[in-house]
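Quick one:
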Amino acid sequence: MPAAELMEHFQWLTHDEADALLRDDVARREVADEMADVLSFLLSLANATNIDLAAAFEAKMARNELKYPADRVRGHYRKPHV
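Output:
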């Protein structure tokens, strides 16, 4: 599964380690390749299921904006209890 292969690059890394990884040109190219695989799979799946990804993304961001108001969540990385 493409997403799992992408995640493998970062799964056990701290934020600092991930930043360092992406400063390495070879590792960055490998991550970019995995991202391209994920995008290709996602676009193919959207096509096969007749889902408009742009519309789905806009709707999801609108729901997130209501569920996680910026003034309550800004600066917090954990999901707030709503």
